[in-house]
From TrEMBL:
Probable flavoprotein which may function in endoplasmic reticulum associated degradation (ERAD). May bind non-native proteins in the endoplasmic reticulum and target them to the ubiquitination machinery for subsequent degradation. Pfam families: Pyr_redox_3 (PF13738). GO terms for molecular function: flavin adenine dinucleotide binding; monooxygenase activity. Belongs to the FOXRED2 family. This is FAD-dependent oxidoreductase domain-containing protein 2. Interacts with SEL1L. May interact with OS9 and DNAJC10. Interacts with TXNDC16. It comes from Pelecanoides urinatrix. One of its GO terms (cellular component) is endoplasmic reticulum lumen. The keyword Oxidoreductase applies. GO terms for biological process: ERAD pathway.
Length: 675
């Protein structure tokens, strides 16, 4: 009753003394600062609330052993900044070159303190508006027809100061430890508090609950000083190189797999943690038993009165007592501060640690409430990198673009090109775009075709989960069909049980591109924008509905899709088939001949030669084209009697000098031929 009255009093007082901002961001971690940067660049009214005295407080404590598993690759052999972000998993997006993470650490796997310094500088150098030491303890909403979304959000901090916002961006991450309660769980130490000094474990026998990177990180730290380490979890170990999911076990932490498989005492077990029970004996040793053995028994009665599994099965795997049991089960989202009016509900199944959100990152229960960063990972959980900095820096930018269109009438950024640049535009993006590369199967480039396929509009890194809403979400129209450019792994290549090192794992020939296993570009063609129903009925494990046509660019060992025959030519022919047009480039002489011999000129000739654009010819250029087999040497086909031999070269030079052909006479000749 007291809590209800307190919440009611907050709602009553909220409208009386509330500080207003268009956008409120809860949390000054990486995703909160990234959102603040984009809002500040757009000149919007926003504020960031951070409960600690500095940004990135999560990284001040975690990971406990202070080594990040996000790579910091300082050298790629290229100077293209967009390409280099593919291999920089720590930097946030900004215009300031000083804020590249490689300037803060030389290590491939950086120390966590470097991330803390980086986030502090990101906030201070860019002068982001962050209110530190401000813990938001309660969030509710109040209906108002004048508000952007039909309601305002009211936030209350620890000092009972109220804030009023039109849009709420939640960037708190997942920081509440996952805890499993079972008989004897009071004897378990948490990852968040356990000692990180290996000497504290010297000569001890340790059981670790969990099988993620935090569990293996803890094991790696004490591997050399313990008697042995056992690790138990309900699921089998998943290796990131097999699943292609960076949240699974990384090689930097998997030393215990060696000692397990090479029979050096350590081991892994599978079992439901809720079925376990721990009993402590008089010497302080911890014995593992099963919950059903303790039914109707008092665990404090002593070890002698408790039935242990080894009493019935003398080779029970965990029959040896343990000195310590450590819980390393990860984290979950904090739902406690959100009033029921916001309808912030946990997900289902293995996504229950995240709030339910749409593919647009907007809450399913409340319009105008967006979830950013790690907490938004339910959109691509175990599929892509949306739960990590190198993924959510792009999804945060996508959310900002959605908000710009919705609230400020600023359409999604796009560029219009003539259709002759279609192949080049795709090849450029798939070879350098970092957002497509990191958020594979989630973010895609959208190519909107103009009428008669004479031009196209290029939109970058749009969330494919809301493709059916593209016109509403972006302010762009798609009446004439579209291409979707996305990156994918092979359909059956990723999985905990997959052998990703088998002999014929890679495809090298363009005709087998659809069988590519490694990350590669895929282009979907739709004659019409897919509907909501088509999105719901898309094939399992497909990022998009079934298209009218689809093209795979064959995987490449160097992730360099610029080979003329293997990559560019098949792509161009696919595009030509979809558009029923010729996307080749031509010399002016070829366009001149086409004008007399074809009813329809190729787009390159229409948009270049006929409009008096293109390269200026020269004798050297023509000679090079003839020698390369690109042009015929028409001078050799002239009839000897038509003119003196010495005049041929002069007439060629005259033709090259007079490279501009007037449009009206040329069209007159074409029409005369047609008649």
């Amino acid at each position: 009753l007291g809590l209800a009255l307190y919440a009611g009093s907050l709602c009553t007082a909220s409208s009386a003394a509330s500080l207003y901002h268009d956008y409120c961001i809860i949390g000054a971690g990486p995703s909160g600062l990234q959102a603040a940067y984009f809002l500040q660049q757009a000149g919007r009214d926003y504020v960031v609330f951070e409960r600690s005295h500095a940004p990135g407080s999560f990284f001040a404590l975690y990971p406990r052993h202070r080594k990040l598993i996000s790579i910091n690759k300082r050298y790629t052999g290229k100077s293209n900044g967009e390409f280099n972000l593919r291999h920089d998993w720590n930097s946030l997006l900004s215009h300031d070159r000083r804020l590249l993470f490689q300037r803060y650490s030389l290590d491939f796997f950086p120390h966590a303190d470097a991330m803390v310094r980086y986030l502090e500088d990101f906030a201070s150098l860019l002068k982001l508006r962050v209110r530190y030491n401000t813990a938001i303890v309660h969030v509710t909403l109040e209906r108002d027809g004048q508000a952007w979304n039909g309601h305002y959000f009211f936030l209350t901090d620890q000092d009972r100061q109220n804030y009023k916002c039109s849009s709420l961006l939640v960037a708190t991450g997942t920081w509440v430890p996952n805890v499993v309660n079972f008989p004897g769980s009071e004897y378990v130490e948490g990852y968040e508090t356990v000692s990180i000094n290996p000497e504290d474990f010297a000569g001890q026998t340790v059981l670790i609950l969990g099988r993620g990177n935090s569990a293996f990180e803890t094991a790696e730290n004490i591997l050399g000083v313990t008697n042995f380490i056992h690790m138990v979890s309900r699921s089998r170990v998943r290796l990131s190189w097999a699943t292609h999911y960076v949240g699974d076990l990384r090689a930097i932490n998997n030393g215990l797999l060696d000692t397990y498989q090479l029979k050096s005492l350590d081991g892994l077990l599978e079992g439901d943690l809720e079925d376990l029970a721990i009993v402590k004996d008089k010497k302080g040793k911890l014995h593992i038993t099963l919950r059903f053995y303790l039914e109707n028994r008092n665990t404090s009665a002593g070890i002698d009165s408790v039935t242990l599994p080894q009493d019935e099965l003398d080779n029970f795997a965990t029959r040896a007592p343990y000195d310590r049991v450590i819980r390393c089960l990860g984290w979950k989202f904090d739902f406690s501060i959100y009033n029921r009016s916001l309808r912030m509900m946990p997900g289902k199944g293995n996504k229950k640690k995240y709030p339910q959100i749409k593919p647009s990152y907007e809450s399913r229960g409340t319009r105008g409430l967006f979830v950013l960063g790690t907490a938004s990972h339910s959109v691509d959980f175990r599929k892509s990198a949306g739960g990590f900095i190198h993924g959510f820096r792009y999804t945060t930018r996508a959310v900002h673009r959605l908000l710009e269109n919705r609230h400020h009438g600023v359409p999604w950024p796009s560029t219009v090109y003539p259709i002759t640049q279609l192949t080049n535009s795709i090849i450029k993006r798939v070879n350098e775009a970092s957002g497509l590369y990191q958020m594979f199967s989630v973010l895609a480039d959208i190519i909107l075709l103009r009428e008669n396929a004479t031009a196209f509009e290029y939109l970058e890194e749009y969330p494919v989960g809301v493709l059916a809403e593209l016109e509403m979400q972006t302010g762009r129209k798609a009446p004439n069909g579209l291409f979707v450019v996305i990156m994918e792994y092979g359909r059956n290549f990723s999985g905990a049980d997959k052998d990703v090192f088998y002999y014929n794992r890679a495809v090298g020939e363009a005709q087998h591109a659809w069988q590519s296993n490694f990350l590669h570009p895929v282009i979907y063609y739709y004659k019409h924008l897919p509907t909501e129903r088509e999105m719901r009925l898309q094939p399992p494990d497909w990022p998009l509905p079934r298209p009218d046509a689809v093209h795979h660019i064959v995987e490449d060992f160097l992730t360099d899709w610029t080979a003329p025959n293997a990559h560019i030519l098949p792509l161009r022919r696919f595009l030509e088939n979809c558009l029923s047009t010729d996307l080749r480039n031509f010399f002016a002489e070829s366009c001149f001949l086409f004008a007399f011999t074809r009813q329809k000129l190729p787009p390159f000739c229409q948009q270049g030669y006929v409009r008096m654009q293109g390269l200026v010819g020269s004798e050297g250029l023509q000679r090079h084209a003839v020698e390369a087999g690109l042009l015929e040497d028409y001078a050799l086909t002239d009839f000897p009697g038509d003119r003196p031999p010495d005049s041929r070269k002069g007439s060629q030079d005259q033709l090259l000098r007079d490279h501009v052909i007037p449009v009206r006479p040329l069209q007159h000749l074409v029409n005369a031929k047609d008649e």
